[in-house]
Amino acid sequence: MTVARFAVGALAACLLMSSAPVAWAQSVLSKAERASESMEPALVHADQAKAAQAKLDALQASMGKRPNIVWLVVDDMGYGDPGAFGGGAMIGAATPNMDRLAQDGLKLTSTYSQATCTPTRSVILTGRLPVRTGLTRPILAGDKITMNPWADEISLPTLLGQAGYKTVLSGKWHVGESAGMRPQDVGFDEFYGFYEAEKEISQGVDKRRYPDLVLNPERLAMLRATGSSTALVHGFKGGETKDVE
User: Fold this and answer.
1) Rounded Cα distance, 38 and 153, in Å
2) How many CB atoms lie within 10 A of CB 16?
3) Cα–Cα distance between 168 and 187 in angstroms, integer?
4) Could you confirm whether 14 is annotated as catalytic?
5) Between 82 and which of 95, 102, 109, 136 could a Cys-Cys bridge form, CB atoms 3.0 to 4.6 Å apart?
6) Of the listed 14, 45, 174, 234, which one is catalytic?
7) pTM of the predicted protein model
8) Out of 14, 45, 117, 234, which one is annotated catalytic?
9) For all residues of the chain together, what is the average pLDDT?
């Protein structure tokens, strides 16, 4: 009887609690705004944009010209690893040069992507979510791309070129290697580096790291058949593109 009374009392308490009005926390995404008919709703960071513009104006006033733009993309490094974002010396690996670049330059704090190379690069280069461009995962050797994801996009280097900048990319691209998808095809004036991931080249030549592949003629032939690169590339927008041994 005591147990039954307790159960009835607990049920009544639950009903009384549930009858009270509930104030749900407002989602931050509810603040998203549509800047134009051709764009998806997005969070507007007016204060950040104003601060960034003020810094750019100050740099131009002090130098008498627009500042150079240096963009560094590092694979396999977490957001909180550099000191400028809470890591560095605090986690046992000081990053003074990165911290100085962040202090004197512009910190990007509102870019969202899958934590892999191709989607990350595509987001910053196009300003669009990977699901919109189709660049949702790393492009691998042997992949057959049936539709150029860059065909309907306006890239960052294209916009910089229209503003009078000369754009150069060096190092890893990994956002498309077919004609029409290469750096020199989507806005960069010059490119020196490799289209795919670094291992797409090294796994076919580095005997120390990949002996089972490099020293096995049959496996090496299978790798070559995928179209994997064997050299660096040097290309120019509207000009010559050639392999560099």
Assistant:
1) 12
2) 9
3) 10
4) no
5) 95
6) 174
7) 0.74
8) 117
9) 82
